[in-house]
Amino acid sequence: MSVSTDVNPEGPQAQTAVVNDFVITFCTINGSGSATANSTLMRAIFKMGVPVSGKNIFPSNIQGLPTWYSIRVNKEGFLGRKEHDQIIVAMNPATFGKDLEFLDPGGVVFYSDDIKQPTMREDLVYYAMPVKKLIRNAEVPPTLRDFIANMVYVGVVAQLLNISLQAIYDALNFHFKGKKTPVESNFNVIKAAYEWAAENLEKKDPFRVEPMTATDGYILADGNVAGALGSIYGGVQFFAWYPITPASSLAESLIEYLPQLRTNAETGKQNYVVVQAEDELAAIGMAVGGGFAGMRSMTSTSGPGLSLMAEYLGLAYFSEVPVVVWDVQRVGPSTGLPTRTAQGDMTEVYFMSHGDTNFVMLFPGSINECFEMGWKALDLAERLQMPVVVLSDLDLGMNQWMTPKFRYPDRPMDRGKILWEDTFDKFLSEHDGKWGRYLDVDGDGIPYRTVPGNRHPRASYFARGTGHDEFARYDEDKHVWERVFDRVGQKYQTAKQYVPDAAVSIQEGAKFGILAVGSTDQSIQEARHILEAQGIHSDYLRVRAIPFTQTVEDFLSTHETVYVIEVNRDGQLKQLLSLTFPELAGRLRKMTKMDGLSLSAEWIVNELTSQEDKKL
Amino acid sequence: MTEAPGSTGQTNLAGLTRNDYRGAPSTLCQGCGHNAISSQIVAAMYELSVLPEEVLKFSGIGCSSKSPTYFLGRSFGFNGLHGRMPSLALGALFADVSMHAIGVSGDGDTASIGIGQFKHLVRRNLPMVYIVENNGVYGLTKGQFSATAEKGLSLKKEGTNLYDPVDICMEAMVANATFIGRSFAGDPKQVKELIKAAFSHRGIAVLDIISPCVTFNNKDDTVHSYVFGKEHEVRLHDLIFTPARDTLTIEDYEPGTAKDVELYDGSTITLRKLEKDYDPTNRVEAWRVLEESKEKRELVTGLIYVDTKSRSMLDYYKLPEKALNRMTEAELRPGVETIDRINELMF
Predict the structure, then answer these.
(1) Closest partner residue to A270 among B76, B319, B323, by Cβ?
(2) How many angstroms away from the CA of A141 is the closest CA of chain B?
(3) Which of A66, A75, A293, A511 is the most buried (most CB within 10 A)?
(4) For testing the chain B interface, which of A52, A53, A255, A271 should be mutated: the one with the most B CBs within 10 Å?
(5) Global ipTM
């Protein structure tokens, strides 16, 4: 096929260059090794100092189904999902026709020249790539050919978009951890394709990457790695887990980084334990056992696993065991869409387990907050002696985001109220010789705990889910039950002073408020920026924890209309706000979308505009 | 109940009296087999001179699982969820690996809802004594069939049991348990010696103890009753446990009449031959006696199987001397200098 420059005469002609502002989507088949190619291009752009993010839309399958990877390049640093693409790389014949629909008019199509063309849109620029031919000519072992085929588009795209070959080399070197053979074999293919494109393709589109310095001080990372690292800096000691998408890579990151960060250099001894459990019922049981016994204890899962953990979390709540659960949310109910994102577990966690329970919930809204809440969650759990659930999601957890470098914890660890032999004696002398595991002496609802291994002959107690008195003795007396249970409830009020406060952003003359949690932050910020340019100003509060803090109540009190934006069907955050602040519930407007994708700024702008219009 | 030499009031090598090993008064039924087992745990711990502060107690849900309150009142304990004591114990034991653990479960708790966690605990060889107080019936919910109930058993409100029972010892064998004993609450001396040996084993020690439910399942002709146990118990051997410090006092038996098994902590269990030879280190023999006792409807008791060579779960981790739960911020939080390196590892 010699139609490598077959531009429709009616189509777009050379226009003003569009620099560092486009979305390119790679349409491939999963299991074909495209992840390496895509991340190489993204890292190369990042290396050039240009803000970039990557989103993987993948099937629940290992090999053979369509998968899409979108890289957004944006000089202003807005990196949320976009509704349309400017460029696609079409490698999957099965989806070619559909893939073209992603493109804005004037968009660009790089496609493998073995794709037999159905009708093509005439408002696009096409570049055909002779993938098979270039691979045949490359010096690559035959067994690797399929995997390296994707490197052809890396070279062609790099040439046409002006992405530096040196930056690509650096990205490959990073990916293959400096291993010369794979770096060189991949780079040779990229270079050959790059040179082929330079000689054979005529640039017909306006999109370009130009170096910037906007990534200084930033890294590329995903939320699961960040959460794992944050937990390590939080001193996580015991971690039990069971594989589940999209949470598995959090566990695997702990397995990767714990040995290097938490092994004693002199003795070679480890001060952590990771156990892959037989199921989530056991994973949470192990984590609760570890927390009861005084280790910083944690597990990670997603919605289905969390359902299985509910009963043990109820026991942990009532027996007052510190434990941290990461819930990397995906689309439910049931198996749902395991590889797509959602914020649909909020009411599940809020109401989890039988009887009256309260769990502290944390909502990281960025990669850096995943790191930060990694260590803060462990502090909170021990301070409050209760389970803490961190609600991340697939978009944060598994996608690569540009984020400021991880910051070392800015405060010492909070081990909460724990007594060892010496402090136990001191406690007794200060409290008339009296200690009870469930006796509140400070008035904040939080008693002093002891843990197994404490050899003081009076330090032990028997933990249980049945009724017990302040001294942990079995008791079914109605007064004892009420007294103890109300005191446990009091801790939830105490929690408000310890949890991360909401983040508030004010615009002068705001017409309405926006309220959200978690990963929607980027797109909401962008939407507000777009609206601001149109003269529509808004205030924005991002909840970072439940129980809701005073800041949330103040925000609701001072805004007549508050749009609650979230990625689920029923408006779960709005439901929880309405329950907590019934007198303010009338101010809340539901704004939800649940199609497995993260929200885009365009959708938010459209929704806000049309809902505001309805008010007039 | 058998009182060991040195009864109430006397102190053991740890300087403690028998009273220091007791718990709260039992609230189980008069005559419940579980109470007899609790007493033997107290006796065994006293005679072993164990510090109660160095023992952790666990249980699930059911009558049996209430019993850890009734022994070792100075030990920490956790009454977990139904069938999920194994995971709880596993997590807790890593906090301080110098501790010992005793778990008490029942046939409902282990063989029904808890069979999965039980098997996984066994395959991991977590060092703990895992006692199943086996009475073939759910007591706390008032008399339903358990998974160990004999086929054909009739209960007041339940009709007749249609299914073959789960055999705890066989399940333990399949999962490669490293210590398996079966006993009978009506044979307190053997229960006590088995508990002592189990406590000295480095690995999972499963004790399936037939413990009659006097309220719901104690008819004379049923396998979980006192009368049946008394009439059909077949001891594989007489067990004599000798702690490490006393090994010089091990009696000499006539050649061929006894077998010694040295346990992890240097203590010894001497198995005195009864009618036939029995070698509990032989897996095939273990299967044979379990199968034969089933066929003959006998209650075979004793040390069914022991493997003192396998590593315990804790031995697979390079843990420091200092207990993990005593680690401080200085030990747990990587130094500030590491954060730059970590950031470089990203991109």
Answers:
(1) B319
(2) 29
(3) A293
(4) A271
(5) 0.96
Confidence of residue A6 (pLDDT cuts 50, 70, 90): very low
Cβ contacts of B324 on chain A, cutoff 8 Å: 237-238, 271-273, 295
pLDDT range class, residue A1, cuts 50, 70, 90: very low
A146 pLDDT tier (thresholds 50, 70, 90): confident
Which of B51, B53, B92 is the closest to A292 by Cβ? B92
pLDDT of residue A15: 66
How sure is the predictor about A2, in pLDDT bands with cuts at 50, 70 and 90? Answer: very low
Task: Assess B327–A contact: CB distance below 8 Å, yes or no.
Answer: yes
Tokens of B5: 């030499």
Q: Residue A11: pLDDT above 50?
A: no
Which chain B residue lies closest to A455 (C-alpha atoms)?
B53
CA distances from A501 to A363, A497, A555, B272 (A): 11, 9, 12, 70
Model confidence over A56-112: pLDDT tens digits? 988 888 778 889 999 999 999 999 999 999 999 999 998 998 899 999 999 999 999
Contacts of A293 in chain B (CB under 8 A): 56, 91-96, 325
Name the pTM for this structure. Answer: 0.95
Chain A residues closer than 8 Å to B75 by CB: 460
B121 touches chain A (CB under 8 A): no
